[in-house]
Every structure is written in C-alpha cells, then in structure tokens.
Write a structure and sequence with these properties.
The structure is a single chain. This protein is of the alpha/beta class. The protein is built from 9 helices and 10 strands. The chain has helices at 59-66, 90-95, 112-122, 127-140, 156-168, 186-201, 213-219, 237-244, 249-259, and strands at residues 2-18, 26-43, 47-52, 74-80, 86-87, 97-100, 174-178, 205-209, 222-227, 230-235. The strands form 2 sheets. A 6-stranded mixed beta sheet has the order 6-7-8-3-9-10, with helices on both faces. A 4-stranded antiparallel beta sheet has the order 2-1-4-5.
Length: 265
C-alpha cells in the first residue's frame, strides 16, 4: 500500500519576457512553480488506482516520487510491505516497487530471457525461484513466441511487454505504470490489461497512468485526477460519472478539466 500526505514538488524554470527598452529583445528570468501541489491519497492492496490528467498536469513527477526516484519538497510518501509495516530505507522501498516509465531503455543485444536472468542475479533471487518467475512472466504476458529473440528485433508491443517483464521479476507488491499501453496494438494492450487484473486479484497495489479513458473506466477501481499539480477529483469511475452527469469517463474527464478552466485534450 502507498499513502501520500500533502506532497508537493517545486521546480525552477526559465521564462522569456519582452524587454521594453530593447525592441524585439527577450530577457530571461527564473520562475518557481509547483509540478505537484499539496496532493494526498491512498492506494490500497488489491486496488488499481488510475492516475489521470492532461499533458503537463504533474502525473509523471508524481509517479517518480511514488517510485522513490524523486524526493518531494514537502509532505510524506509511506510505502507499506505485505505485513503493513512502513518501509523506511529508500533502497528497500525500491525492492517492493515495479516502475515502468515511457523512456525506460532495455539492453537491445539481450533476449528478454537473458535480461530477466541478469536481473534475477541483481535482485539475488535463487536460481530455481528465478526460473519459476521467468516461466510465469512468459505465460502471463504471452511472450512465448519471442522470449528468446534479441530485444532489438522486437516489435513495439513486444518490447513493451519485455519492459513490463523487467518490472515483474522481483515480484513487487506495488506496480507504478506510466502509459503502459501507449501506441500498442489491441493484442499487446489486452495482454497488459489482463495482467494488471490478475495482479490486482493476487493482492498487489497498482497505480496506473493512462490517456485512454475507456481503458481506465474498464480497469480502475478508483480514479485520482490531477490538473496543474493539484487534485481535482477522486472516486470510482461510477461516482465521477454521476457527479458530472456523464455516462463515460472520457466525457467525465473533459467536464472536470473544463470546470477547472482548462482545455480538454
């Protein structure tokens, strides 16, 4: 389980301003801004929590903090193990998390099987146990046809499944997935979505960011919506649709963003 309490992350950016003294000249000045601003929520065991929001809303920054790859400026993120004990050590936290981002790179000259065996050694997984996990991953992600092909030869969908397999090998209790089905065909997308459902049923915690509203409506138990770094909605898909008077999550998303003065995507 993950518990997020009043978490904020602030950055500094350069902005250009017109200099009235020099026609056509733009001066640079620094500006501080919140990518995530005072956000709180929980993601429980056996739950898929959808993290939704338009581009630039703060989703990726939030997910990186949840994965212990980035430190909040303020607030607290608590990671719990299967015995409901809070994990304090950052390295230990990462052992309980499987994090997938859109820019993760794989070792192209290895096959997926070879990559997973190397990762098993890194995680110090017993060989017999590693072999069992690799066989399970191969089956659950339907990778039999390309498990021993070099990663550089895989299709986009096959590469994404290989990337997800990387997150599974240490059997984490928490999955944090950022756009896992972006640009994939129906077969690859279905394999990933079906896997998520199975992991939820086994008691895992899944945080799932996507731009596909139909996918979120079908898959997620609860939705956390963020816009300009702030929480703007939380609830089941049914609750949010009822609140906005809509019958699908796509229209719900549009209404909630427009309500905040934004433009829907």
């Amino acid at each position: 389980m993950i518990k997020v309490e009043n978490v904020s992350k602030q950055f500094t950016r350069n902005i250009k301003k017109n200099d009235s003294k020099k026609s056509g000249f733009k001066s640079k000045t620094k500006e501080e801004f919140f990518a995530v601003n005072d956000v709180s929520f929980e993601a429980r065991s056996g739950e898929i929590l959808g993290i939704l929001g338009p581009n630039g809303a703060g989703k990726t920054t939030l997910l990186r903090m949840l994965a212990s790859l980035m430190t909040p400026n303020s607030g607290n993120i608590s990671i719990f193990d299967s015995n409901n004990n809070i994990i304090e050590d950052t390295v230990e936290k990462k052992k309980h998390i499987g994090y997938l981002s859109g820019n993760t790179k794989l070792y192209n000259r290895f096959s997926t099987r070879e990559m997973l065996k190397i990762l098993s050694d890194i995680y110090q997984i017993d060989k017999d146990e590693a072999d069992k996990r690799i066989a399970y991953i191969e089956e659950v992600l339907s990778m039999q046809a390309f498990m021993d092909n070099r990663i550089e030869k895989l299709s986009t969908g096959q590469t994404q499944r290989a990337n997800i397999a990387r997150c599974l090998i240490h059997s984490p209790e928490i999955y944090i997935f950022d756009e896992p089905t972006l640009g994939l065909d129906v077969i690859s997308s279905d394999a990933i979505v079906d896997f998520m459902k199975k992991e939820k049923e086994s008691g895992k915690t899944v945080l799932y960011s996507t731009h596909y509203m139909e996918e979120a409506q079908y898959l997620c138990d609860n939705i956390f919506m963020i816009y300009k770094g702030k929480k703007i909605a939380y609830g089941t898909p049914e609750e949010l649709m009822k609140e906005t008077g809509t019958n699908n999550l796509r229209d719900t998303f549009k209404k909630l963003i427009l309500r905040e003065g934004g433009n829907d995507e």
